[in-house]
Amino acid sequence: MKFANPHADRGNDLYCTPPVAVEALLRVEDLPTYLWEPAAGRGHIVKVLREAGHRVVASDLLHYDFELDFEADFLAQTKAPRGCEGICTNPPYRLANQFARHALDLAPRVYLLVRLSFLESTGRTEILEERGLARVYVFRNRLPMIHRDGYGGPRIDRSSVAYAWLCWDRGHTGDTTFHRISWTAGEVEPCV
Q1: What residues does 109 pair with on adjacent strands?
Q2: Full-model pTM
Q3: 141 and 162 in contact (C-beta within 8 Å)?
């Protein structure tokens, strides 16, 4: 079986987040004012959050064409930026497990855009069942295609992969709630 994007072609796993994915999250979640985006890439998440009035510290492993607050390996950081109330990111897919665990260690609230299949693994039981996963927002309609940075092939409008926002709150106890959300204008959003 040949994968569409073998690891050798994926570089640092920069897949730019469609702004509509972040806008959908903002419609259903009351995010903290001061956030950290540790995989900022070209700033797609940061720009939407800042336009919505959030203070966002932007960092990444590499500097692309977006102004970062600092350049660093997120997984090597020992603390969140001063005053940071949460982390909001679309982690590199091959490092999603490590990003989730590390983010949960560093911040009281964490918002990750991940493939829906992230929920399937028994290897993630600790972070999914024991670390305060409060809400999961599954997109009822597939997100616009998230193309790899630098991809020069044919453009596809819709992704064949299902995505969801996973929202952790360190103080959350009890069951995780699941909601269906939409990124398209005019779709009914769930009551939260």
Answers
A1: 169
A2: 0.85
A3: no
